[in-house]
Structure prediction request, 114 residues.
Amino acid sequence: MTLLEVMFSLIIFSTTGLAILQFMTQSIYLSNQAKIDVFSILIAENKLNEIILNRNLPSNSWISGHEYMIGKIWHWRARSEDIEYLGLMLIDIEVTAENNMGTPLCFKYYRAIN
Prediction:
């Protein structure tokens, strides 16, 4: 084998290794993001159920709080808005993870006005 063949095979193996490393990094990031999304949905649904069961509907202004789940503090805020011409009430809930100060995940729930 010549030096040129050895260098060419090293280039192929290093390129393959970098591609695998990039794939693994992206896979870890996406699985972490999916976990954040799932727990945000759970927190939003819990807050919605608390609001409905306690009949403590927020007004047009935001109410906020935080929950502690899986070792993190999750910040949430909620408000409601009447859509009278449709006979519906819109309940907005936004959830943000403790270390994820980016765009909050927004959930919109519609409920019929009695």
Notes: The helical segments are 3-54. Strands lie at 63-69, 72-83, 88-97, 105-112. The two ends are 83 Å apart (CA to CA).
